[in-house]
Write a structure and sequence with these properties.
The chain has 342 residues and is α/β, with parallel strands linked by helices. The protein contains 13 helices and eleven strands. Helix 1 packs across helix 3 and helix 8 packs parallel to helix 9.
Length: 342
C-alpha cells in the first residue's frame, strides 16, 4: 500500500509539500500541486484515517455517550446524529454504559474511551456526572455538549426540554378528558428529568383541585417490563382509576400490553398516556397518545453547537424546544372509575 512518502518521492517533492497537498492546508504552486495529484492517482494513494488525522490535526470524528444502546429512545437519537455527521463528511463513535453498577463510573469511562479514540468533540447524554467530572476534562470541556441535562459549569453547552412543562401538558390532557381518578407509573427517582415531569404533572393536578397525596403512584424503570409489572400492581391494588400516566412511552407500551392481557380495554375502560412521542407510540395497539418532546430538534441543536465549537461551521443554534400533545387512540373521555381486584 502506497504511503505519503511514496507520493512525495514519485512527485519529486518534499514530504511536507506532499502532506500540504493531501491535507489541503498550506499553499503550493499550481505546478507542484499537479505533480502531487498525478503521483496520488498513479499510486492509488488513500491516506488512512490515522494519517489524515495527523495531517489535518483533526480526527473528523464526534464521540457520543449514551447510557444504554437499546430501546426506542436512544437509537433514533443516535441515527439522527450519525446521518447529520455523514452529510458533513464526519463520523460518529459511540460509547455506552454496560451492566448495572455505578452509572457515574460508566459515564466517566465512556467519555475517557471516546477521548482516547481521538474524537474532536463529545455529545453526552447522562445525568450521573458530577460537576467535578466536567471540570476534570480541563480544556476538553469546551468541546462538549450535554443533552437532556443541565450542568451549571457549562450551561451554554447543555440542551434539554422543559420536562416540568411536559408534565403539566400531560395532566392538562387528562383533565381535558375529565379524568380525575388517575394513576402514575413514574421513572426512577434518581433521574432529574423524571422528577421534573412528575412534579409538573402533580402541580397541574393540584391546581385543578385534585388531592395529589391520594394518587396511586409507583416508581419503575423506564422499560416495557417495568410498565407491565407496574400495571399489574395497579390492577391488583383495588385503586379506582380511569387513566394512567406513564413517564415514558416504553413503560406505556408495557402497560398497554398488560391491560390487553388482563382483558382491560384501552381506551374503553382505561386511558393510557405516554411521554416522549417516540416512533413506537405511533404503532402500538391502540396507538399511544403521548406528550410530544422535540428530541430530534434538541439533538440537532446540540450537535450544531458542538460542530461550531469544533469546526467553526457557523450553524444556527436554539435552546428553546416545543412541548405538545400527540393525540392518538389510547386516551378518551372518562366513562367510569375502574376498581378491579384479582
Amino acid at each position: 500500500m502506497a504511503t505519503i512518502k511514496d507520493v512525495a518521492r514519485l512527485a519529486g517533492v518534499g514530504l511536507g509539500t506532499a502532506s500540504r497537498v493531501v491535507s489541503g492546508k498550506g499553499s503550493v504552486s499550481a505546478a507542484t500541486l499537479e505533480k502531487v495529484k498525478k503521483a496520488i492517482e498513479t499510486l492509488d494513494f488513500r491516506p488512512s484515517h490515522a494519517a489524515r488525522s495527523l495531517l489535518s490535526g483533526s480526527s473528523q470524528m464526534i464521540g457520543v455517550y449514551v447510557p444504554l444502546l437499546k430501546g426506542t429512545f436512544y437509537m433514533p437519537i443516535l441515527q439522527s446524529i450519525d446521518n447529520d455527521l455523514r452529510l458533513a463528511g464526519l463520523h460518529m463513535v459511540v460509547a455506552f454504559g454496560v451492566g448495572a453498577g455505578d452509572f457515574r463510573e460508566h459515564a466517566v469511562d465512556g467519555i475517557n474511551f471516546l477521548i482516547e479514540r481521538g474524537c474532536d468533540g463529545l455529545i453526552v447524554m447522562s445525568n450521573a456526572l458530577h460537576e467535578s467530572d466536567i471540570e476534570a476534562l480541563g480544556p476538553r470541556k469546551s468541546q462538549l455538549v450535554v443533552l437532556n441535562h443541565d450542568y451549571k459549569s457549562i450551561v451554554g453547552q447543555c440542551f434539554t426540554p422543559d420536562h416540568f412543562l411536559g408534565g403539566c401538558t400531560a395532566a392538562k390532557a387528562l383533565l381535558e378528558k375529565k379524568h380525575k381518578k388517575i394513576a402514575v407509573i413514574a421513572g426512577p427517582a434518581s433521574a432529574p428529568d423524571n422528577v421534573a415531569r412528575i412534579s409538573g404533572f402533580m402541580h397541574e393536578l393540584g391546581a385543578a383541585g385534585i388531592d395529589t397525596a391520594k394518587i396511586w403512584i409507583v416508581e419503575s424503570n423506564f422499560a416495557p417490563d417495568g410498565g407491565w409489572s407496574s400495571a399489574a400492581a395497579l390492577h391488583q391494588s383495588g385503586y379506582p382509576f380511569t387513566a394512567v400516566f406513564c413517564a415514558n412511552d416504553e413503560m406505556a407500551i408495557g402497560a398497554l400490553s398488560y391491560f390487553q392481557h388482563a382483558g382491560i380495554n384501552v381506551p374503553g375502560d382505561v386511558s393510557v398516556l405516554g411521554y416522549d412521542d417516540t416512533e413506537t407510540a405511533e404503532f402500538s395497539a391502540p396507538r399511544l397518545t403521548s406528550v410530544h418532546i422535540a428530541w430530534r430538534e434538541m439533538t440537532m441543536n446540540g450537535l450544531n453547537e458542538l460542530l461550531n465549537r469544533c469546526y467553526d461551521l457557523g450553524r444556527p443554534v436554539t435552546r428553546q424546544f416545543a412541548v405538545g400533545m400527540t393525540w392518538r387512540s389510547s386516551v378518551e373521555k372518562v366513562v367510569r372509575a375502574r376498581k378491579v381486584v384479582v
